[in-house]
Design brief:
This protein is an alpha+beta fold. It has nine helices and 17 strands.
């Protein structure tokens, strides 16, 4: 095996010629190299993030870096496939669950077709982290969730593998659009409401306010919700560990009422690179639309300063579209599904969610 590998690869398993090994945070350079090499081939036409080492250190770092499960596949000492399961605390049905976001699944297109299919099936079987027969069993894993394009053939294949080998009837739990913000429409909306009396202030939130931000984030919305939660330490890493991340807060009468978190990411599409600004969390009382509009305007301001091509709202499923549409929120043609499965088999949930999409 490659001399550059760390001790994290001592635990390995596989079938036939493939060997599967667990990565650690220290192996990010190798993970980055694989994703940067393969993703342009697989997703170059639709666009994908640049999986730089810095970007992956943010995703895989922080208080949970020992909990994430990152798996590579080897063939003749060459890394040819990879997938990750990112630890998340999720609130659902009155309980806080240990969940894992299944993402970054990649198999090299340079493999022979039969080898590629065989490797992919082996990787799919690894996704059932809560099963004791899983190669990378996680004792306290309650459920695994994933995001796919609505018309993704991959999702159908995964469903068949889970049904056949684990009797898991995975269902589509939620369907959502990707949204973009129309800057001119948002500015017009803000100008119209600014003529009224405004009793709150919008300002940059700092790391010292991580406790207040975490408390507001962890307030469970009304109704059936599948929502990601964070400890103060998790939020501090997630929001404040990189200079291209921004958090703005709305304060009224000295109290934190709402906030927005967004970051910039380099997107590669057809070999060309451009910047997009990703709004990942906007936490605001739905009845107080003024908060949200002014917070979104901060994202637009930053996007214009850095010449970002678009302001993208990836996580808008839980929003009241009728309330946000006048602010310039517009669905794109990209439609996604969220699927989740648990120890009990199927996870029969259809409703809104607030979880990050990586």
């Amino acid at each position: 095996m490659d001399a550059n590998l760390t001790n994290s690869h001592k635990r390995s398993s596989g079938s036939d010629s493939f060997k599967f090994s667990k990565f650690s945070y220290d192996d990010i350079p190798q993970i980055s190299n694989l994703l940067v090499t393969i993703w342009p081939i697989l997703y170059g036409a639709v666009g994908h993030p640049l999986f730089s080492e810095d970007y992956l250190r943010w995703i895989y770092g922080g208080p949970n870096k020992e909990k994430h499960v990152m798996v590579g596949a080897w063939l003749n000492h060459d890394l040819i496939a990879y997938q990750s399961f990112l630890y998340r605390r999720v609130f659902y049905g009155g309980k806080t669950l240990n969940a894992y976001l299944w993402t970054h699944a990649t198999v090299s297109p340079r493999l022979a077709p039969s080898e590629r299919v065989h490797c992919a099936i082996q990787m799919m079987k690894q996704g059932v982290l809560f099963d004791k027969n899983s190669r990378f069993y996680v004792e306290d894993c309650d459920l695994v969730y994933a995001f796919n394009e609505v018309d993704s053939h991959t999702r159908e294949v995964v469903d068949k593998v889970l049904k056949k080998h684990f009797a898991i009837d995975r269902k589509i739990n939620s369907v959502f659009n990707q949204f973009i913000i129309l800057p001119n429409k948002l500015k017009k909306y803000v100008n119209e409401i600014s003529s009224r009396e405004q009793s709150f202030d919008i300002r940059i939130a700092t790391e010292k306010e991580s406790d207040k931000l975490a408390n507001l984030l962890n307030q469970v919305p009304q109704g059936a919700q599948f929502v990601m939660q964070m400890t103060e330490d998790e939020l501090r890493h997630y929001f404040f560990s990189r200079p291209d991340h921004h958090t703005y807060a709305a304060y009224e009468e000295g109290n934190l009422r709402a906030f927005i978190h967004f970051f910039t990411v380099q997107i590669i599409k057809e070999t060309k690179a451009h910047l997009e600004l990703i709004v990942e969390f906007i936490i605001s009382d739905p009845a107080q639309k003024n908060y949200a509009a002014h917070l979104l305007l901060k994202a637009v301001d930053v996007a214009e300063k850095i010449n970002a091509k678009a302001v993208v709202f990836e996580n808008a499923n839980f929003l009241d579209f009728d309330a946000y549409q006048p602010m310039g929120l517009m669905p794109t043609l990209r439609k996604m599904t969220m699927s989740a499965f648990s120890r009990e088999g199927s996870f029969d949930y259809s409703g809104t969610f607030r979880c990050d999409v990586k």
